[in-house]
Amino acid sequence: MAAPVTRMPLARLPALPAASTPEQRYWGTFKSHLLIQEYGAIKSINFSPVSPHDFAVTASTLVKVYSSKTRAVSKTISRFQAPAQSGSFRSDGRVLVAGDEGGLIQVFDIGSRAVIKTWDEHKGNTVNVTKFSPTNVTQVLSASDDKTVRLWDLTSPQSTHKFIGNQDYVRAASFVPGSPHSVVSGGYDRAVRLWDSRSVGDHWSMEFNVPAPIDALLVLPGGTTILASSGPTVYVWDIVAARRVAVLHNHQKSVTSLALSTGPRQGGRRVLTGALDRHVKVYDPATWKVAHGVRYPAPILAIGISPDEKHLAVGMSNGLLSVRTRSSGKEKEKAKEKERVLDMIAAGIDPITGKGGPKSKSSAQRRRTRGMDYKGEGADIVVEQKTRKKKERPWEHRLRKGNYGDALDFALMSSQPHITVFTMLGELRYRNAINAALANRDENTLRPILRWLIKHLPNSQYVSTIVEVSLLILDMYSHDLGKSPEFDKLLRRLHLRVKQEVENSKQSSLIAGMLDMLLAGSASG
Q: Would the CA dihedral through 169, 46, 141, 85 be positive or negative?
């Protein structure tokens, strides 16, 4: 008895890289994009540690507090005679500290916007950094162009500790998590220094040198890993082992801001970098590889992400503030409800009353069909699977009959000629019948084959098959060159396409060689 005829499955090509990674899809959920124009370059963005995580934006002579719910200004602090710097919240979200280019440090009550405390020991030098301690609600850290890093207490009119020993402007400083007495600083003297407030004077406990001035610092939770941006490069150190663990070369211009994403998400925390090349890049600290990137319309000076990872704020040199927001649970429910209503309308059902749709059976119909739906008890139910025989496609029928030329022609006329012809050529190669399929053809029957070869030659997955078929055609029909203008034109097009692909391959090899040299140089450095 002959075996039943089954349809030939189409060829399955190797899977190409996914169009988007889970990381890209996650950061793509920050869809609600708001652009706000400020009066000057945005120098810092700081989110409140306390829900609902309002954020402070420092630009010109103002520190504006934006509501995280409405993304509109809720408070404006304007008690500055010089351009403001580094507005940042205390751990309870009730108090904010900021410096300015005149050397003044001011502490404000967020509710009343009243000045709680002022210090002026930096004396006319720009205060680049002001931060509250994450563990001590009365302690403040500052770093200035006077080459000093200072600690302050709200109960004292003067600084409680002064770290000296920097050789140039100090542009970045931070407390070290988990170590209440440790402070890290970096600046234009191209050195990252770790200080201990229990020591006196210019005796730092650890120092790392970099080849360019430092613009930003970030200490990861745990206090054992420090990141410093030096020009377009970000250096990563392990301060316990006192060694460098990674160097990130993914920006083309100076990196101006570093931020940490620690919200509840799959894959753990991420490090964000913003640079003058207008890019924000997202790194996985497990591998220090770029997981995602976003381009902005102007050079970036400040970035911040809310602790609940609902808002991503980016400040630019032209005063533009970008706020991207993820959809909340209620907004997602509204979107699902909208889809449900649209589905009901498409089915002819009134979404308000629920009436409509397919008409129900009349009482007479129900009487006539009573009992026909009965399937018996659970043990008596017999499930029958009826497989519907699929009709052979035209090219499959001719291939089975051995009419290889006709099979190839019908494959070229199918609804999916790209994969169907590729499947057909693979089967002909398996049967050693490609010569038979290409033999005894004229200009009209060769034309669609040549066009398919020209169109799909750039596809690397088809190259080996296309090369084999092209060589066979040239071998079988080279004596017909010059007899048909159309045939000659198609062969010239094929020749040009091959030259173009060879040139592309050479350029790719050249770029690969250059990248190998650059990566080898960075690894040795």
A: positive
